[in-house]
Design a protein that fits this description.
It is a single chain. By secondary structure, this protein is an all-alpha fold. Helices cover 58% and strands 0% of the residues. The chain has helices at residues 4-15, 36-50, 56-60, 65-79. Helix 1 crosses helix 4.
Length: 81
């Protein structure tokens, strides 16, 4: 299995390079740059990087780095990766 945390960290850093909050601690509540456009780009990047399909309901749950990690891990386990 790919190193999910490192890959996601790279994605988030590329999409939101300017922020004082460490990447792994970022949430929609503590980062002013975590807006709907960032969320959409994060969703698309995760789907592309990990070959996953994320439902609309799951997309609404993408509110922090940690929830994204858990979602990716769960979906990768379910797909047998």
């Amino acid at each position: 299995m790919r190193d999910i945390v490192s890959s996601l960290e790279e994605i988030v850093q590329d999409l939101m390079s300017v922020d004082v909050v460490p990447v792994r601690e970022r949430t929609s509540e503590n980062c002013s740059h975590w807006d709907s456009m960032f969320n959409l780009n994060l969703l698309l990047s995760i789907e592309e990087e990990f070959g996953l399909q994320i439902s609309d309901k799951e997309a609404l749950e993408l509110t922090s780095f940690q929830t994204a990690v858990r979602m990716i891990e769960k979906k990768c386990r379910a797909s047998g990766e």
